Amino acid sequence: MTGAPAASERTTPPPHARVPASPVTAGQGRVRLPHTPDHASCFACGPGVPSGLGLRVTDTDEQGVTALVTLDDVHQGAPGIAHGGIVAAVLDEATSLAVWHVLNRPNVTGRLEIQFLAPVPLGRPLRLRATCTAVHGRKAYATAELHTDGPDGPGGTVAATAAAVYIAVRQDHFDHPDRHTAGTAEPRVPTPAGTAPCP
Residue 171 — very low, low, confident or very high, per pLDDT cuts 50/70/90? Predict the structure, then answer.
């Protein structure tokens, strides 16, 4: 990675994390993905989603994926440049696809950190490189760079970088989204030492 690192302590793999090895290269069948081609209505990579991102993987290897995306006026923040939230979605998708490709397991985003380095232009191809860097228990670590040099790179500006942590889940996590209860419990509110929580 050539851009400024986006990783904080929380998205840096621990020293005893292992380098990922793809079970697919060992002959294991590929799991069903919540991405294209298995889920064509994905906002980020679905090919026919109105106002979607249209991100498409152009190359894969044992470490991750290379992808292209062209953002349009509907993805605009300030005039002529992509909205930061859209850039975050692009980097989330790229790191997610890298983890799925390398580890061949269902995962969800646990943490995503973005470093914005330059404006991201609209209307021209942007190249992404995302890598699954480590695995520790259920956590997978990934990084990505968003380049403005288009499909033929390198040589363009690194406009944004990402560091992410993904958490392994069971396949049925995506089969029955109505059964998830995350976020429905009462939030825990820390109290100063020596005081009782409010009733």
Answer: confident
Q: Which two tokens stand for residue 153?
A: 């790179």
Residue 48, number of CB atoms within 10 A of its CB: 9
Contact call for residues 128 and 66 (beta carbons, < 8 A): yes
| pTM assigned to the model | 0.76
Distance between CA atoms of 147 and 132, rounded to whole angstroms? Answer: 18
Check if the beta carbon of residue 92 is closer than 8 Å to that of residue 99: no
Beta bridge partners of 163: 113, 143
d(CA 61, CA 89) in angstroms, rounded, equals 22
CA distance 141 to 196: 38
Q: Which tokens go with 136?
A: 């520790």
pLDDT tens figures, 95-110? 999 998 899 888 899 9
How long, in residues, is the chain?
199
* Predicted confidence (pLDDT) per residue in 57-107, tens digit: 899 999 999 999 999 888 889 899 999 999 999 999 999 999 988 998 888
